[in-house]
Amino acid sequence: MQTNHGAPVTAQGPTPEEVQARRLYRELGLTDDEYDRVVAALGRLPNFLEAGLFGVLWSEHCSYKSSRVHLATFPTRGPQVLQGPGENAGVVDVGGGWAVAFKIESHNHPSAVEPYQGAATGVGGILRDVFTMGARPIALLNSLRFGDLSDEHTRYLFAQVVAGIGGYGNCIGVPTVGGETVFDPVYTRNPLVNAMCVGVLRADRIVRGVAAGTGNPVFVMGARTGRDGIHGATFASAQDPQAKERSAVQVGDPFFGKLLLEATLELLAEGRVVGVQDMGAAGLTSSAAEMASRAGGGMELFLERVPVREAGMTPYEIMLSESQERMLVVVERGGEAAARAVARKWGLDLAEIGRVTDDGCLRLWFHGEQVADVPVRALVDEAPRYQRPQQPPVQPPGAGVPLPPPEADLGEALLNLLSHPNLADKRWVYRQYDWSVRAATYVGPGADAAVVRLPDGSRGVAMSADGNGRYTYLNPRRGGAIAVAEAARNVVCAGGKPLALTNCLNFGNPEKPAVMYQLAEAIAGMSEACLALATPVVSGNVSLYNESGGMDIYPTPVVGMVGVVEDWAHVTPNAFRQAGSAVLLVGPEDPALDGSLYWQLRAGRAAGDAPSLDLTMERRVQDLVRSWIVEGRVRAAHDVSEGGLAVALAEMCIPMGMGVRAQVAAAPVADGVARAGWLFGEGQSRILVEVEQAAAAELLAAAAAAGVPARVLGSTGGDRLWLGDSTQAWLDIPLPRLADTWRKALPQRMRREEGEADAVS
Amino acid sequence: MKWAVIEFPGSNCDRDAVQAIAAVTGDVVDLVWHQEAALDPYDAIVLPGGFSYGDYLRCGAIARFSPALAGVRAAAAAGKLVLGICNGFQILTESGLLPGALLRNRQLQFRCEVAELEVVQPDSPFTALYQPGEVIRIPIAHGEGRYYAPPATLDELEQGGRVAFRYARDVNGSERRIAGVLNPRGNVLGLMPHPERAVFDWMGSIDGVRLFQSMRAFWQRQSVAAVSASGGSGQRGLG
Q1: Which of A123, A162, A171, A325 should be substituted to probe chain B, the one whose Cβ sees the most B Cβ atoms within 10 Å?
Q2: Nearest residue of chain B to residue A428 (CA atoms)
Q3: The domain B2-230 is classified under which CATH number: 3.40.50.880, 3.40.50.1820, 3.60.40.10, 3.40.1190.10?
Q4: Among A260-274, A710-724, B13-27, which is the least confidently predicted range?
Q5: E strand or H helix that includes residue A468
Q6: What span, in angstroms and rounded, lies between the C-alpha atoms of B9 and A453?
Q7: Percent above pLDDT 90 for chain B
């Protein structure tokens, strides 16, 4: 049954004319304009399946059509970069013949609807992106955002997301070593779940997702294709998570994922694989089109050969299924037997479903009938790119918010902050993650950055995931820059040299000019910081339409920074070690409360500008502290971030029960508001270091020579946190009280979810 | 001494065990695929941690049907040393080589932390280099590690000196805080904590080292005994 346009049609379903006349393409995610572009690209009307292929590949999720023009401005080059954006994951050289592949990705929308599976499949997907590069995953991190824990549904989401992350990562045997969890009412109905994976490979053994070599066979390996997750990609680009269907959420199987991981790495070691790609968002459609696009060729698939879970699946369903744990593999002609042997060993289906062609077309067959014939370029490279309108706010959103008078007792104020779930001990979270499997975790959760050993033990990889939606909301450009600066600073504090980053841009509805302005500005700010710190972007992901009920989330760029630890002696703890050490504050002193959690909690909303940041100074501070660490002069280092100097000092005291007496202001300060600023201001580019008392003067001179402000705040010792100025104590708290508040805050808030079971620990 | 670490589909601490044992003992440690039933060449067999077959039915319930388990049974019957760690412990209880069962943690959550263990039975092939009553630090990482057995069995274990390790603090609701148990002959040990994650200083504890060294010392004594008294079994189980 051929139409007069010569287009292939499916046996079932509407005709191309009906797709046009009844505007069925709208259900497939295409706008009227986009549909017209498809018709122009094909020179005929697309059939239902073809329109579906365009709909999913031109979705925001797959095409980045709203963000691409801005993403193109990221710095992506550097001598350390072996693979930049555009592949399954970025790859950087860490020396010694080793490289690391890494990427972060969002799974926000599925997690809002089905939190356990949404989070679990997010972990599974990012693992596959990394091992398809030929890298063995060595670490997982995550960045999570939820509403207020006083809300019952939020506690459910939080508990289930954590369980889902652990459920997948623990089973597949990749340690979850770090991350961040932030709570703010703006995320109540739209939580953020970003998962990052880091893998290791030999620098000369990178595998790319290319379908090259005309005539080479194309296989699908792994799970069977079912009806789950159809339209997951377009779902992620729709607006209201509450209205989203649970049936569009995929279900993960970490055991199968483990088999796929081992089989893929074994297959790649055989050397007969041309390219591999995870069948992630938009399933077979995106993996086939993208692999063909990268090779500049085409692909022909025979869909009846795809192993399916149930009878009667249509070509449309087979192409758009997002069933998990499937890979598309192109093998050299002649390598089929070796591939089959590996699949058999791991008990996996391996089905030859097509071949690589050289005519630039994605051609689909079903039981002898051609059901789609579409130019790959049109699907992938010619996807629309929108320069969407931007609108800066009339006045900055945090302007004019008054600061209520501070508490009479600033010690109570500090305890209040330490019991806020953003700042409280996250052990409740990470004790549910296996962070020591693989027996290579040198520094696990709870540090400024995690450190994991490479296989030969010669060096380590330091990694950190950081973002701050509040700062980016208040000042998108500076907030974006701070996300990069803070992630790099964390890697420096842990003893690493920052190399490159991956990012996940979680924003609202790009069709709103105010949101588009936030996105463009944040990307510009991130780019400035990338250049200043010489840490290019090598991979990333954009998640838009994070809104519900018309309310957008805070614009939340999350940065996953990776650095190298060249010598184990560089690994630096973030807690005070010894009594009698000098405590130095390195970096500019700024008592402003702009953007601080303190001000938000007092005022009931985000307030002021984003905290101050000078990128030239940031670089100097990081370089200076790193040079001290390399020289072996630093006993402990910790960056000053959310909660300010007082919280940072408390965090350094608690782990080892080592007290400190510190003058947070050098001169007397009488005013309560001013004191709160010195204690809780979140000005950037500051690092606290513990050093030998006798070395302090020399280090201060070195700082002055480097053009970096630095001051001795006091010294370690005793069992109290004493903070004040040169004449007076502002607060003086016994460490057990501090530790108790910090440790119990999160478990107490989650107790209702655990009931009696929590009695054990 | 020659060691085998059995790799099941879904094992994920197999390589960790190989590396730790090789580093601690300097011995040959082979990773052996679960389809291998002939384990005769090996002096000790380790069933590693992980999620064999996804642990979807019950932990270890499917792995016990692997061909390698025939080899494990034969080795245990011959008096060779068999060590089951975490999922390996679960496989040993499922296969009947050790009594009891491992249930979901009482918190109904996974637990990963460094646990303090009391060495209850220092006179076994696995624990001889620890001091009686010594408290050691070994990481745990499990969701289903709550040891359960009927009271009579628990009494029997205690009276027979077959409780090897006890958690110093209740971490998962295990009966009598039991962390590791021995078979009657003393040559099969199952424990939930991961000694292979406590063998280097940078791991935060090296208390796992002596477990593997104890096994090696036992094998050496056994070999010497076998040579000097040919025909004798050279067995020395629980003291």
Answers
A1: A171
A2: B111
A3: 3.40.50.880
A4: A260-274
A5: none
A6: 25
A7: 91
Q: Which two tokens stand for residue A643?
A: 């909660």
Catalytic residues of A: 61, 107
Say if CB A126 and CB A199 are below 8 A apart. no
Q: Which of A123, A127, A170 is the best residue to mutate to test the B interface, defined by the most B CB atoms within 10 Å of its own CB?
A: A170
CA nearest to A715, candidates A742, A743, A695: A695
Strand A441-443 relative to strand A450-453, pairing? antiparallel
CA distance A702 to A164: 48
Handedness of CA A321, A325, A331, A336 (dihedral sign): negative
Report residue A23 as tokens. Answer: 């505007």
Report chain B's C-alpha Rg in angstroms: 16
Amino acid present at A435 = W
Q: What pLDDT score was predicted for residue A228?
A: 77
Tokens for A302? 């025979």
> What is the dihedral sign for C-alpha A131, A135, A139, A140?
negative
Chain B: residue nearest A160 by CA? B109
A375, HSE (Cβ side, Cα atoms, 13 Å): 12
* Predicted local distance difference test score (pLDDT) of residue A235: 56
What's the pLDDT tens digit per position in B88-129?
Answer: 999 999 999 999 999 999 999 999 999 999 999 999 999 999
User: Helices A615-630 and A696-705: crossing angle, nearest 10°?
Assistant: 140
Which residues of B have a catalytic role annotated? 86, 194, 196
As a whole number of angstroms, the distance between CA A428 and CA A183 comes to: 15
The b/e string for A264-274 (b: 16+ C-beta within 10 A; e otherwise) is bbbbbeeebbb
What's the confidence (pLDDT) of residue A282? 85
What is the torsional sign of CA A98, A104, A105, A111? positive
* DSSP structural state of residue A132: T
Q: Which of A172, A434, A439 sits opposite B196 (nearest CB)?
A: A439
H-helix or E-strand spanning residue A305: none
Tell me which H or E stretch contains A509: none
Measured between beta carbons, the chain A residues lying within 8 angstroms of B56 are: 255
Selected residue of A436, A438, A570 to mutate for chain B interface (largest B Cβ count, 10 A): A436
Which residue type, as a one-letter code, is found at position A453? Answer: R
Exposed e or buried b per residue across A703-740, where buried means at least 16 C-beta atoms within 10 angstroms of its C-beta: beeeebbbebbbbbeeebbbbbbeeeebbebebeebbe
Q: Could you give the CA distance from residue B45 to residue B74 in angstroms, rounded to a whole number? A: 11
CA distances from A392 to A67, A188, A401, A507, A518 (A): 17, 25, 19, 15, 8
Longest dimension (CA), chain A: 91
Residues of chain A with C-beta less than 8 angstroms from the C-beta of B33:
345
Is the pLDDT score of B138 beyond 70? Answer: yes
Which contiguous run of DSSP H or E holds residue A398?
none
Confidence (pTM): 0.94
pLDDT of residue A758: 46
8 A C-beta contact, residue A437 and residue A173: yes
Enclosing H/E stretch for A122: helix A115-131
Instruction: Report pLDDT digits (tens) over B190-234.
Output: 999 999 999 999 999 999 999 999 999 999 998 888 877 765 444
DSSP symbol at A2: -
CA–CA dist A144, A111 (Å, integer): 11
Taking any CB pair shorter than 8 Å as contact, residues of chain A touching chain B are 163, 166, 170-173, 253-256, 258-259, 345-347, 430-439, 442, 453, 568, 754, 757-761
Task: Give me the amino acid identity at A259.
Answer: L
Chain B nearest-CA distance from A503, in A, is 28
Strand order in the sheet with A660-663: A636-639, A687-691, A582-586, A710-716, A660-663, A720-724, A729-734
